[in-house]
Amino acid sequence: MLTGYSEARHEVREAVVDTLKGLATANKAGLEALKAKDTDALAQARKNLKEISKTTERIDNDIVLIFAKYSPEARDLREMVSYLKITSALNRIRANINNYLKNMQSMLLEDNTVIVELIENSLVINSCTVNAFDYALTMFQTFEDNDKIKSLAAKIDVEYSKTDDIYTLLEKEVIQKICGADGLAEEYFNLLKYIRKNLKIIDRLDSMAQRVIFARMGGKL
Fold first, then answer.
1. pLDDT tens-place string over residues 104-136
2. Closest by alpha carbon to 207, among 92, 130, 128, 97?
3. Rg (CA), the chain
4. How far apart are CA 97 and CA 26, in angstroms?
5. Which of 23, 42, 142, 159 could anchor a disulfide with 148, C-beta 3.0 to 4.6 Å?
6. Which phi and psi angles does 137 have, rounded to 5°?
7. What digits encode the pLDDT tens for the residues 151-194?
């Protein structure tokens, strides 16, 4: 392998990892802010997301330059194509985190004890997402070990499955409250909508894990 290409490839991988770390940090900060019911901390977590789009754009441009300069073949090409897909997922994760935290700010500012209790009950989903971020980062740190990568992808899938189960239970709880006709039906429906956006974060992490597997072992992208 050409030395120049090897260095360029590792720089792209490091940039992807740094971006993923930034998203993981913002996501975890958002969870801590929600636990503390701190709307100012939620706003700060959102600020940390602003540069993500510019970063992923630079990564995509670097990948295009690698294609033009080195014409990677087979496995190397597969890895670069995977990163293009991964940067797209990272952008969507950024949007999902930002929208979710923004909506949670507005919910908390209503200062309704029932809504706050429902938000607290939903935070188990956020904890699953924090775990999934950790597993995703470890996948890149053990990138050369196919067995570990597959094992970590399976763990992300388990966390994803947990969030579906948690959301189903939460949805039942919300429907019961709507049937109680306490005048908050619209707020309850909005809360479910916002939590579904939160579920998309771990959905993107799950798909990203499959793209890491593709980069290493091939298969379907």
1. 999 999 888 989 999 999 999 999 999 999 999
2. 92
3. 19
4. 8
5. 142
6. -65, -40
7. 999 999 999 999 999 999 999 988 888 787 567 788 888 999 99
